[in-house]
Write a structure and sequence with these properties.
Elements lengths: L6 H7 L7 H10 L1 H4 L2 E3 L9 E6 L11 E5 L3 E5 L3 H8 L4 H12 L6 E4 L2 E4 L11
Parallel strand pairs: 1-4
Antiparallel strand pairs: 2-3, 3-4, 5-6
Length: 133
């Protein structure tokens, strides 16, 4: 795992290295330590500190939060807006544009990202200088 600096590093050091959509929901509901690192930000944008984005638009957490972002500097960002939906609908033309745009924002080569319909997977480390698809 890469060296993570900022608020999220404190969670990693306390044994919170593994995350998933189900773990995010469980931890935000049940774990007071994790809740200390939660920040509400409805204007969040992709940036090089973005680790993961979880979409809860179909079933908002606590009845209102549609997006949860793991961010190196800000910690756990919750938003009442669907960050991915807004980004796809209002900023980009197609999935290929999404892949290239996110890679550019994160400072990755475009071949280090994989775009599948509404999902984008990318690595915090580049393991190859060649196309990985």
């Amino acid at each position: 795992m890469p060296v993570i600096q900022g608020r999220f590093e404190l969670l990693v050091q306390n044994g919170y290295r593994h995350w998933s959509k189900q773990l995010v929901e469980k931890r935000l509901t049940e774990d007071p330590l994790v809740r200390q690192y939660v920040v509400h930000n409805d204007d969040y944008h992709f940036n090089p500190n973005t680790i993961a984005i979880y979409n809860f638009a179909d079933n908002p957490m606590f009845g209102e939060y549609k997006t949860v972002v793991l961010d190196q500097k800000e910690g756990i960002v919750i938003s009442t807006k669907s960050v991915l939906h807004k980004y796809i609908k209002h900023v980009l033309i197609s999935g290929l544009s999404l892949q290239k745009s996110i890679a550019r924002i994160l400072g990755l080569a475009s071949f280090h990202s994989i775009s599948l319909v509404h999902l984008v997977f990318f690595s915090l480390h580049a393991y190859s200088k060649k196309n990985t698809d």
